Amino acid sequence: MKVTYARSDTLDLFLALHRELVGRCSWEVCLLPRPVEPAVAAFRDGLRGWRADGVPIPPAALAAPDGPAATDEATRTVLAAMDAARPRLAPAIAAFADRRALAEADLDQRLCLPRVGGALAAAMGVTGETLELPVHLVPFAPYPPSVGLILDGSRVAGTYLDFRRYVGATLADATLTQLGWALLRSEHGPGHLLGRLRALLPGTGPYQRQLRLLLTKTVVELTAGHLVRTTDPEHRPCVEVLGTAWRFPRLYDLVRRHWTPYLDGHRDREAALAAIATEAAAYSPRWYTENIDGASLAADFYLLEWLAAQGDAPAAERLARWAPQLSADFAGQLDLVIGTELGHYECARPDALAPDLAGFLARVNLGDSRVAWWRTRRDLGEIPALDLAVGAFAGPGVEYGGEAWAPIAAMLRRYAAGELPARVFIDQCFTLQHNNGCLFDKYFEAEHLLPVLEAQAAGDLATLARHASAEVRRRWQRHRYRIERGYSPQWLGADRAVDLPPPDRPRTGRLALGAPPPGSLGCGSAEEAERLAASPADATTPVRDRIWQFRRPWPAVPRRYAAATAVLHTGLGDVRLDLWPTVVPHTVDNFVALASGSRTWRDPVTGARRDDPFYDGVEFHRRVPGFVIEAGDRSGTGQGGPGYRIPDEVQAGAVFDRPFLVAMANNGRDSAGSRFFVTLAAARHLDGGFVPFGAVVDEGSRAVVTAIAGASGPVRLLRVTIDATPA
Q: How far apart are CA 354 and CA 341, in angstroms?
């Protein structure tokens, strides 16, 4: 097995453009000014054409010396978009040339393929073939996952990895993971991992196929992380820190218990796979592939607390055994998500921050923040690191939703310091979820979590019981039976009669999140175990899409206007805007407040809080004749804002079908703040991604806008005059 380092300017450019338009988070560094020009936006159309033709993305031809041949319309569209973006993207890519060379040298030392290559091939069940994999370390790749295979038909022609995001041992882990997948595509002998899983877990149903795919993914990632730890014991495997272990905890727990002994040399590979398959076959595949139901965990916790308060000694004992494990699981999950959220401050200006905070954010954003946060916390200590995290969220992080995460980090700090008992910490986690809705939405099914927490606040035990695990639900029913059998049915009413439920099933000795079998305490499901047993229906049941619950906090209730206009006083003349307060009230209120100085903002250059008119003196930092003019960034870079963000108010019928529309600029979903632009032509590629909130209607103003776009020197927005009629 051999790794060779390959470089392709065409592939670098393609991946960077793909990141900008399709796979970049709104808080990451922008390489292209937004909104992008029509010639660049056509890249999306080219990708759609490739997908319709079944072309793998990225196609292997991109890594060829001469690049792909423009023999079809989709490829011509993609190549033209890349040429249009090249002047902006090529210098940004070239700036990372030295870091790429260092990353290749570091990876050479860490991979240790002569030592671990044979073990990786054996784990994948691949023998008798020498694999030489070209590896492209690239500075910009779409996220997630910032890595991928380059396919030529079914043949693996190489792989790419974003060395900005994957650093050190994490890069070695990701590379071995890609090598594992490449091995699985290179040979299909009798011991092949995919073949053995198909034989041990047969079935063609959607859930059955999904189970085998996720089992393979977990085995490959667990193996890669284990092999890196043999040379770097301090490494935290990607399977844990990048999310697989948290997204599919039941499956991860199953694989870890049986596969790790094989990796440690204490168990035969075939025996490990057979044990995984035997245990997995006992339940429906959806038990392993669907997310933990956070509503069930909350119902179990609060119902057991209530029963314990009523004197139910077995319930109190069960809660006492479960709470420490549940609190530790919650702390681990919150710690990981805090690391994720700290990655939002990649663009924070260090010169506007205190030195210790600036240094902390620089360390946390060295590579993937989830990994760097763990390393930083380990080096600084839990309490100092969490103190800095609180400061980051409460300071520069306000722009990225830090007002929600500052109290969460503060709570985790108190728990780490031993100031919060396990049960109090669990209750505070659920309380904060109820208040801002962002703790458990990433790794739990949260569709019913809010109604359960509201039922807890209202003392609605019946709703809690419906969402609780079968074991806790039966315990609550027995408690009702013991209470109610002592009262006259005439008092209770016939509909209140309670039958004695069946006795408890035997208890499980282990109460780790994801490990309890169906129906038991903390299993994360309200279903009875019998309904989750393997059945013929597994072959036909379609995979249920996860219902994501994102509760985006809106700003305070906007000031509403019946009508509003604004006059932009510029160095080339006045521009009158008709605003649309009845269509997009939050957006118009934000623009009016910034223009009039009635909303506090943070200076992007100095970091100081100010409450004077924001737009006075700003430059039109972007002027593209025939497309847009843009202003509203006091830093003049096209990346700055007012120190906060507002949610989108995209309207289904709002389209950029004519020139001289006014809209808020953004870096992605819910990232608008102060920057606004005026179109000079129809721009339908902007539909759905930006928020029009007004228009330039008179001919004199339109002439000034056109003159600003074509001016040879800087043009400033001197001030803005607002005329608004309250609703």
A: 20
* Cβ atoms of residues 342 and 389 within 8 Å: yes
CA dist., res. 722 & res. 559, Å (int):
14
Nearest to 298, CA basis, from 415, 472, 443: 472
Residue whose tokens read 């962002």: 438
Q: Which two tokens stand for residue 223?
A: 């193996």
Beta strands in 103-208, from DSSP E residues, in sequence order: 132-138, 147-152, 155-162
Q: How confident is residue 161, by pLDDT bands cut at 50, 70 and 90?
A: very high
Mean pLDDT of 212-231: 97
- 3-state SS class at 152: strand
Is the pTM higher than 0.85? The answer reads: yes
Cα–Cα distance for residue pair 494/499, rounded to 1 Å = 12
pLDDT digits (tens, 9 = 90+) for 374-414: 999 999 999 999 999 999 999 888 787 788 899 999 999 99
pLDDT-derived band of residue 546, with 50, 70 and 90 as boundaries? confident
- The residue to which tokens 């040979």 are assigned: 187
- Check whether the bond before 517 is cis (ω within 30° of 0): no
- Cα–Cα distance, 309 to 306 (Å, whole number): 5
| The dihedral formed by the CA atoms of 289, 188, 239 and 200, expressed in degrees to the nearest 10 | 40
What are the residues whose beta carbons fall under 8 Å from the beta carbon of 415, sequence distance 6 or more? Answer: 327, 331, 425
pLDDT in tens, 256-271: 999 999 999 999 999 9
Look at residue 511 in the predicted model and tell me its pLDDT: 37
Give DSSP secondary structure letters for 545-598: PP-----PPP-SPPPPEEEEEEEEEETTEEEEEEE-TTTSHHHHHHHHHHHHT-
